[in-house]
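[job 4471] stage=fold_predict status=RUNNING
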Amino acid sequence: MPGRRLTVLPAPPGKNSMWLWSRVKNPLRVIYNFLLITAVRYIPSLTLRIWLLRATGMKVGRNVGVGMMAMFDFFFPELITLEDNCLIGYNATLLCHEFLPEECRVGPVVIGANALISANTTVLAGVCIGQNTIVSAASLVNCDLPPNVLAGGVPARVIRERPTG
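[job 4471] inference complete, writing structure tokens
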């Protein structure tokens, strides 16, 4: 798929790729990440949320806002970068892996400075969202989005340019 940086890991013979999970990532690290990211979903303190996300290895810039119930990939949180002043909306999901029947795909996710990922949006592995970009609610982002645009839909597409200032 254009605009995605992915590493592909083939599934074991006769099994789907989800059977790879314990070979792809240490199970103890997955449990640790899961516990921290689950806590982030419910804790009202933004400061504590950011601290816990950084404890997973996620790169979180200054003044980042993370809404309640936001879900981050607990297999590969270290592949997520949230640049300065971006906002992640309520119940948004950022994934760095995809288990498919024949392969597992892994790739980084970058949310640019001053970008907004609106409520109930899903961002797939290997995607970069440009700075100052707004992604409308309930969108599916499956390819890169340039800076300074309004995008939305399933799949997300550029709706219009945003004025820079």
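[job 4471] summary: DSSP finds three helices and 17 strands in the chain.
[job 4471] exit 0
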